[in-house]
Amino acid sequence: MKICLIAEGCYPYVAGGVSSWIQMLVKGMPQHEFTIFTIGAEEKLRGQFKYEIPNNIAQIDEHFLDEFMNAKEKKATDIRITKRQKETFVQFLLGERIDWGVIFDMFRSDGNLSVNQFLISKDFLSIVEAICETKYAQTPFNDVFWTIRSMLLPILSIIKTKPPKADIYHCVSTGYAGIVGAKFKHDTGKPLIVTEHGIYTREREEEILKADWVDNYFKTTWIDFFTSISYGAYVAGDVITALFSNAKFLQIELGAPQEKCIVIPNGINTERFSNIEPLSEVKKEFVIGAVVRVVPIKDIKTMIYSFSIVKNEIKNAKLYIIGPYNENPDYYEECVELIESLECEGIEFVGRVNISEWLGKVDITLLTSVSEGQPFVILESLAARRPVVATDVGSCREMIEGTYDDYGESGIITPVMNPDMIAKAIIKLAKDRKLMIRMGEQGYQRTVRYYKEEVFLDEYENIYRRLHK
């Protein structure tokens, strides 16, 4: 069977949870041939793979949004679109749910309509005028025009791409990847699976509300844009998977048909961690490991503030931040400066390492993210019998406290962006190694019961076979 995985902003360029998920899926299904259709932000990433590519990946089809933004414009031509096509674009840009088939048919991969020509046409100008009259009467027309143009150029360009040949298309997020998956299904008639690790729309909303690159009066437009393209993926999907129940309910709230939605948790190969020594009741140092990418969504600054409080009480505490720190160099430098300003000793940025080797060196793991899906690091920690302190995001509470079992707590859940509460949880474990050991064991039992890699692989194999006709 030929399966095309559609990935945005992750595999194989960025080490992280979604990329690890893709690598595990592909390696766990050597009987299938995979194509990876990648959507990256910048063309400079081309060929810069962070993963060893499995033998059953036949092709990596690379696409970058900045290539479309930098494309040369052609001279305006006399383009004419239908009334329905114009109305669909206006509805889309006003945040209404639309029939994406109208736009897909306009920008077929073998069609004659150029994206750049459309965006300098009189018809596009009339669409912008309609938006201004309805929503932006008091906003400079020039600002509206260029905002909408910059919004549409990459997405229309990417959906005009020719689909790779496949029996099944499987996008691993909504957003750009999801709408590309919907377009490929529209063009080929092949089935589509939509998998979300976090809720893409919610994550983009959080980013946009905080962003300084978007003027306040355009923030709702950008949020509506991402909501609409995610809805397009939900409607097109034959099967829509979430990692945990609350995420499934959010998908349905955002327009996913309930009958298509199922939950398939992440799985893990616990044997990778079988050689790690259990925690001992006596140890000279108290070591915290944070297996994260150093990016704002992981809220490393709150982690640093929390550890500075811990350090005042637990003098032998150390914090190893384990994961790549070159993804967002500016944020990394801000974190280093914060450590220096707090005069906080005992923090080290380790970089990307072999997690199964490093987890044996730590007593607990720490996660301070403001948004998550179902973090692999929690499963990895529990597989190594290390308890976790994590913020109450995604399925962290479900994984640590349990929903369907009575194994007991395997760590402590804290509020988001609350250094005092996070530090309190860490200190509680640091002062009670018996509690730490018990929580680690309880987490291990839950992980081997509910989060097995083979169960995860079987679930997707069954879906692939059911959809492949």
From TrEMBL:
The lineage of its organism: Bacteria, Bacillati, Bacillota, Clostridia, Lachnospirales. InterPro entries: DUF3492, Glyco_trans_1, PelF-like. Coiled coil: none annotated. It comes from the Bacteria. Residues 1-259 form the DUF3492 domain. Pfam families: DUF3492, Glycos_transf_1. Signal peptide: none annotated. Residues 276-446 form the Glycosyl transferase family domain. The keyword Protease does not apply. Transmembrane segments: none annotated. PANTHER family: GLYCOSYLTRANSFERASE (PTHR12526), PELF (PTHR12526:SF608). Gene3D superfamilies: Glycogen Phosphorylase B. SUPFAM superfamilies: UDP-Glycosyltransferase/glycogen phosphorylase. One of its GO terms (molecular function) is glycosyltransferase activity. This is DUF3492 domain-containing protein. Keywords: Transferase.
